[in-house]
Design goal:
six-stranded antiparallel sheet, four-stranded antiparallel sheet, 39% strand, 5 helices, alpha+beta, globular
């Protein structure tokens, strides 16, 4: 399962995810007061290291989109969505008998690339025990409640996948919208932007 397939699954599950749209040749204008992310999303197969532009101006995003759609044809898509500033990020890995929630300050790459972890939570579904490691105050009670709620929703949706040897992994951030000066705007919100089903 690749990123585009994961985006479709996030919509099916009905949890908050990036509001992506397909870029087409007739798009000539995006909101100039926002920064944008635009990327190629393969319909199937490996989608690592595909072209993208993250946190660029509306003009740059449109120009990049027009360039990309000349190269990539359906069923592959060029997609775009408003850039966001990550305040806290992490992963949720759901298995048949346990769920692991990992959290890190700011961007997810601090976890996935730099290997930093501010908090790790392990939920044992057989005993109901919840164990926390690291900075236990890193996520507040409302954030914990929200992440617990969505892991239950994802777990229920993937009940068949989880029997045996599969892991459902999602990536998330508590984020804020960004203006063109990369200053946070509006209220904090939770967003999911990666969903994959993988073998153990």
């Amino acid at each position: 399962m690749n990123k585009l397939q994961g985006f479709y699954e996030l919509k099916k599950i009905g949890i908050p995810s990036v509001p992506w749209q397909a870029f087409t040749a007739n798009i000539t204008h995006l909101d100039p007061d926002l920064l944008w992310t635009i990327r190629v999303a393969a319909a199937e197969g490996n989608d690592f290291n595909l072209p993208r532009a993250v946190g660029v101006s509306a003009r740059e995003a449109v120009n990049k989109g027009q360039e990309l759609i000349k190269t990539f044809q359906e069923p592959d898509l060029v997609i775009y969505y408003p850039y966001f500033i990550a305040l806290k990020s992490g992963t949720i890995s759901i298995q048949e008998h346990r769920t692991i929630i990992e959290a890190v300050n700011q961007d997810l790459w601090n976890l996935t690339t730099a290997g930093r972890r501010d908090l790790t939570i392990i939920i044992d579904h057989d005993s109901g025990k919840i164990s926390k490691y690291g900075n236990t105050a890193f996520l507040d009670e409302s954030e914990l409640a929200e992440l617990y709620k969505y892991q239950r929703i994802i777990r229920a949706y993937n009940k068949q996948h989880l029997i045996g040897s599969s892991t459902v992994m999602v990536e998330w951030s508590y984020a804020m919208h960004s203006n063109v000066e990369r200053q946070p705007q509006g209220d904090k919100y939770l967003v999911f932007y990666e969903y994959r089903v993988m073998p153990y």
